[in-house]
Amino acid sequence: MRNPAKFSGNRxxxxxxxxxxxxxxxxxxxxxxxxxxTSTTSTGSPVPSVTGPVxxxxxxxxxxxxxxxxxxxxxxxxxxxxxxxxxNLEASSNYTALFEKENAEVAAGTxxxxxxxxxxxxxxxxxxxxxVPIKDLAGTNTPAEFSTxxxxxxxxxKLSDGNTWMWPLGKSLQLQAINETMLTAAGITxxxxxxxxxxxDLEAVATKEKATDxxxxxxxxxxxxSGETLLEELAAGYGEKLYASDGTPQFTSADxxxxxxxxxxxKTNGALAxxxxxxxxxxxxxxxxxxxxxEDITSSAGVNYEEAPSGDTLEFAAxxxxxxxxxxxxxxxxxxxxxxxxxxxDLLQYLASPSTQATWSQGIGYYPxxxxxxxxxxxxxxxxxxxxxxxxxxxxxAFTDPPYGWVTECGxxxxxxxxxxxxxxxxxxxxxxxxxxxxxxxxxxx
Length: 446
Known about the structure:
It is built from 19 helices and nine strands. It is mostly helical. Helix 11 crosses helix 12. The radius of gyration is 22 Å and the shape is globular.
């Protein structure tokens, strides 16, 4: 399975708002608050330690090849350290299948011990009191491990009530996969560090390469995925994110319009091309490998899929400005018994430890969530992947979308806006259409 974190468009667009609320029998107003219904029931008292044999179930998406080998290695080591705890792994083929299964179990009250969740799923489940906050497991919102996480990771673990409800496993950021040979041939000596440099460099390489290959474009994006994420990062770089902290869309802000116009300009200048389909989610990857592009936008989880033409050198660098962070978190369901919660917390702490994070990162491709893991990673692995140490500090400034179901769904409207604008619609008009649709969705579900 190709990891969904490699490509934000492969992130499942679940109806985590109205549809799930209906399935749970919740009032629509439950989405608006955050954790107000759970704060009075969350004592913050740590659960007892495991006192005897206990089995916990962990639903995840790591059931194939190297991913399966890595999670099996980690769980085997955990069980050896905690012989009273047995961990049953239940793998789904992808995040869409996983969340469909979890949502059905949440509605039926048959949830496992530990599951995976994006922010919007966790928000909805916390409102319904279907998961427990970390303070009910550790006795505090900020356990000792919390302070070791990168700042962006810490922020991502909290929901709208300010409490920590999720626990990290691994994170990814978007990266530039660059044909360094082409860049050098165009007289460019280093990867761009500002959006202005990024545009100038793509244009320079495209101008040079088009002389021999008219099909060449600096970067090929799929609007129904990578283009939407790129728009969010551009807008953030200009000064205003596409969503307010409460999830209100800000698609028609001056910075949002400027960001989309930037993409239109680069398409006009030949530095940007549009490609992709439901059967080809990675047109930039194909262009880079085939020599018809100088760059692809990938992620830490997708590095191993990127290749340059034979004889050319590939390098990886951070995108300019802030990056949108990807990677599902872990949650503990409220159906877990006292002993299962204690065992779950032991596992969560183990997964966040530097040594386990080092193993996880090297086996799965995610960044470790703590800098301490770097000292436990193989020096040969780091030397082969210098981009890790060069870019990992960006997890301190990385952002995620606000944790609301309508925000997840509104990503579809943004994708359509990018596609429409790159097909000739004015940026302001395309974004106004997306704004109206998203505002209506927020009104219906918020």
